[in-house]
Design goal:
With about 350 residues, the protein is of the alpha/beta class. Helices cover about 35% and strands about 15% of the residues.
């Protein structure tokens, strides 16, 4: 369902984990529903790689677990996604390739400021997200353990693994191999690189089983090449190359412990999470496989592992398949029931 409100939180010069400053930082957000008188019905639902608040609406609506009639759902847009401050809209001194590294921790601290300063909110009923949104949800629960009651991570992780780092490095290399990249000119985008990135990404987002059963036909594409051109190439041709690289850097640097609060100690960071946690990897996800989620769940004090039984790969968590979404929604509804 569409948002009730869109807004922008102007944060000024944002101090980053790296020691640099993001000038004129702005956080774009959307809200669904109304804040209760007690300010105790807030759901924070950050966006994914390349996504915007509208892409989160598959889990928001009447008769769903995230029902705006019950919850005040706040969807902050990831820095770098083109709506919040990004290489494509940054201060001229930080535009395009000059954009500084922004971490997941930087995003979450800014989101916390937004909730506190705009809505006078500290308590969060649920921190939830898919993919990079799940990384942010993990950080919310670790950074603010007294204030986050429930945590749901859909196809995400607390720390980017070496395998995922290498996958992302390949995506960045495919994009940046285009000679146009060296021009650093938003008026001359690396179109060949964007097409190459789309084709490279196609083999990672969806599983071998999905391709084996010709899943593209379910989506209405005539053949595999049609799918690659009209979906994957078209998707990335519609995005800003510098934004894509900025978000890759954010994803690669994701580590819930790599910050001033936990000084690199993952065990301490994970032990700090007191929220009731629901960790939901996709059975065939190539980025965040269930084996990695099992390791993280073992480090949490009150967590359930619920594997999405899907052949949609990473997309199992992203609203592409009705059965997958219904499975996720049912698990979220159970999580949001009062503790017994």
């Amino acid at each position: 369902m569409p948002a009730d409100h869109h807004g922008t939180f102007a944060a000024g010069a944002l101090e980053l984990e790296s020691g640099a400053k993001l000038l004129g930082a702005e956080l774009a957000y959307a809200t669904y529903g109304s804040l209760s008188a007690k300010r105790d019905n807030v759901v924070i639902f950050p966006t994914r790689y390349g996504g915007t608040d509208a892409d989160n609406e598959y889990l928001i609506g009447p008769e769903l677990a995230l029902d705006p009639a019950r919850y005040f759902i706040v969807v902050p847009n990831l820095l770098g996604n083109g709506l919040s401050t990004s290489p494509s809209n940054a201060d001229p001194s930080q535009a395009c390739s000059q954009f500084p590294l922004v971490t997941i921790a930087d995003n979450v601290r800014l989101q916390r400021r937004m909730l506190t300063e705009l809505f006078d909110v500290n308590q969060v009923k649920l921190a939830v997200g898919w993919s990079m949104g799940g990384q942010q949800a993990y950080h919310w629960a670790a950074f603010y353990p007294d204030d986050v009651e429930n945590l749901a991570v859909l196809c995400g992780a607390a720390r980017t693994t070496p395998h995922t780092h290498v996958f992302l490095e390949g995506m960045r290399a495919a994009l940046c191999a285009d000679p146009a990249w060296d021009l650093d000119d938003p008026q001359a985008p690396p179109l060949r690189g964007l097409r190459a990135l789309g084709r490279a990404w196609a083999g990672w987002a969806l599983s071998q089983a999905w391709y084996r059963r010709r899943g593209w036909e379910q989506l209405g594409y005539t053949d595999l090449e049609d799918f690659l051109v009209r979906y994957w190439e078209a998707t990335y041709l519609g995005r800003d190359a510098w934004n894509l690289v900025a978000m890759i850097r954010t994803w690669q640097s994701c580590d819930v412990a790599a910050n001033k609060l936990f000084s690199g100690d993952l065990e301490v960071a994970m032990a700090s999470i007191r929220a009731r946690a629901l960790i939901m990897p996709g059975r065939t996800d190539l980025y965040f496989p269930p084996e990695d989620s099992e390791i993280e769940v073992a480090q949490l004090s009150n967590a359930e592992l619920a594997v999405i039984p899907s052949d949609w790969g990473h997309y199992a968590g992203g609203g592409r398949d009705a059965a997958d979404t219904a499975f996720i929604d049912g698990k979220l509804a159970a999580l949001l029931q009062p503790s017994r």
